Amino acid sequence: MKRYSLPLEVLTPELSVEEQVERYGTELYSLKADLCCKVRKIEPQKDFLRDYGTWSTGIRRDQTEQRMSTPTLSWEQRFAELAGRLGA
Asked: How many domains does one find in the chain?
């Protein structure tokens, strides 16, 4: 982050990894991948973006076959409610 001199923020989940293990078990990532992403990525991002009308994010196409066909730009329907509240 220092390399680009951008005002970037690192988001962390509400629960620490230890608390996640206590609540969901040691195999959260491998047995409940959707819940893992929700707890560790989606919820922190959603909370942070509450006061913004626009944002961008990225994924790497080379990580999985599913991501290979990801469009360069797309709309995430699951954030439509949030965007509507912000007047976006």
From this structure: 1
24 domain-assigned: yes
> Which residues span the domain enclosing 19?
2-51+73-85
pLDDT number for residue 35: 92
Q: How far is CA 30 from CA 19, 26, 34, 51, 67, in A?
A: 17, 9, 10, 33, 19
Identify whether 29 is part of a domain.
yes
What pLDDT, in 10s, does the model give residues 10-51? 889 999 999 999 999 999 888 898 999 899 988 998 888 888
User: Does residue 11 form part of some domain?
Assistant: yes
**What DSSP assignment string belongs to the chain?**
-GGGT--------SS-HHHHHHHH-TTHHHH-HHHHHIIIIIHHHHHHHTT-S-------TTS-TGGGG--SS---GGGHHHHHHTT-
Confidence (pTM) = 0.59
